[in-house]
Amino acid sequence: MPVSLSVRPATLADVDDIVQIQQESWQQAYQGLLPEVVLTLRPAQERALIWQQRLKAHPCMTLLAQVQDAVAGFLYWFPENKRVAQLKSFYLHPFYWQQGLGSALLGQAMGDMQSLGLRRCELWVLANNRPAERFYLKQGFQYDGQRQRRQMEGVDVVQRHMYRLLAAKGNGSLSPLL
Predict the structure, then answer these.
(1) Does some domain include residue 171?
(2) Dihedral angle sign, alpha carbons of residues 58, 88, 1, 113
(3) Is residue 53 part of a domain?
(4) Where is the N-acetyltransferase domain (predicted)?
(5) Rounded mean pLDDT, 11-16
């Protein structure tokens, strides 16, 4: 992990960086897994509006990984209920893949979740996205057997549900399965 890594909450001033990282990571990560029509995301201006709304609604739940002065990646999550956090967006610029930044960013987010008393983190991962699946498994996530089909630009995609238990607030042990 680079020594100069810092993790901080995103602000509205970071929206352009978030949109750019999402675009570049999306196209690299899903190349060969999704058709070209799906790889072409909404226009940057439309995505910028979505991120502005998210940051206004949940200002501390979008975290940025920053290396020196460059934004290297981001993670967006929110509490689904009093016990469960939902990890919704997690992207690193491809230049920073396989360098430990994702682990550090996820670790910070899970610490924030724990500090709010959340006991479980959940996410949906694109089926057959082997690098993402390996990453999450290495981070202690596991599959629970749920699958969902979604339409993306008219293309049917399958996602698999994963979860990880978080340590109970105030101790390092895992909480019981919720």
Answers:
(1) no
(2) positive
(3) yes
(4) 5-164
(5) 95
Q: Is 33 exposed, middle or buried (0-12, 13-18, 19+ CB in 10 A)?
A: middle
**Which structural domain, as residue segments, surrounds residue 104?**
5-165
Write the DSSP string, 102-117: HHHHHHHHHHHHHHTT
Residues 71-100: what's their mean pLDDT? Answer: 94
In this prediction, residue 32 carries a pLDDT of 85
Confidence at residue 170, expressed as pLDDT on a 0 to 100 scale = 53
> Alpha carbon of 100 to those of 3, 68, 166: distances in Å?
11, 15, 20
**Location of structure tokens 């940051």:** 55
Helices (H), the chain: 15-30, 36-39, 44-57, 101-115, 130-138
Find out whether 5 and 106 touch, Cβ atoms under 8 Å: no
CA nearest 14: which of 51, 61, 68, 53? 51
Residue 37 lies in a domain: yes
Instruction: Judge whether 71 and 92 are in contact, CB under 8 Å.
Output: no
Tell me the three state secondary structure of residue 80.
coil
Number of Cα atoms under 13 Å in the Cβ half of residue 86: 9
Average of per-residue pLDDT values in the chain: 88
Which CATH number fits the domain that encloses residue 72?
A: 3.40.630.30
